[in-house]
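Archive maintenance. Older records in this collection stored only the sequence; we are now back-filling the structure field for every entry so that each record is complete. The fields below show one back-filled record exactly as it appears after the update. Entries are processed alphabetically, and Peroxisomal membrane protein 11B is next in the queue.

ARCHIVE ENTRY
Title: Peroxisomal membrane protein 11B
Organism field: Eruca vesicaria subsp. sativa
Length field: 226
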Amino acid sequence: MSLDTVDKLVVFLAKRDGIDKLVKTFQYVAKLACWHVEGTRPDAAERFKKWEVASGLSRKAFRTGRSLTGFNAMRRNPGATPLIRFLAVLANSGEMVYFFFDHFLWLSRIGTLDPKIAKKMSFISAFGESFGYVFFIIIDCIFIRQRLRSLRRLRINDEPKEDTSVKVSEIQGDIVMRSMGISANIADLIIALAEIQPNPFCNHTVTLGISGLVSAWAGWYRNWPS
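Back-filled structure field:
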């Protein structure tokens, strides 16, 4: 591993989102590993299950106060169109509900609050999460459509090739980042739907495991230092 990669890893893990994506990777790798060995090695499956549960609970603890970041996110786009601002309010409101009730879910899971409220808190948290992700996906799709139009305009104008190539590279980079965001949000939406309306597809261990890893690795890509 090169020194440059080590430096980037240090910067990545210094971020709250960086730590979250690393532990999320542990959580869903452990989930898939538990499913893979549960029929042949029950002892190993139990250890993987404990790793998964511990990772999930530690992520919830680390996200304490995260519900407040939605207020800041809603103020960040002063130049956005009224439609984007409206969608951003809906998206961030859903995410704030998700993180707020996730605190109570964590406290009930560790026994500080009545464990009986865990199911209700989980449902409300997942509903807010799903609501927010739908609008985050719509926002990213709108921006990708705008960026594609900008690319087409750049390729038919008469600007110097050097200037055009820089702009094209910037637009393509933004499209990739937003595509990663859509991938992560769709994956997390599947996980949330498994909590809201349990069904054989969303609740299957492989579906949940792959969705969790897609979300985690998309987050790695988006937060990795350039």
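Update note: The helical segments are 3-13, 16-37, 42-62, 69-74, 82-109, 118-156, 161-196, 205-223. The chain has a mean pLDDT of 90.
Entry marked complete.
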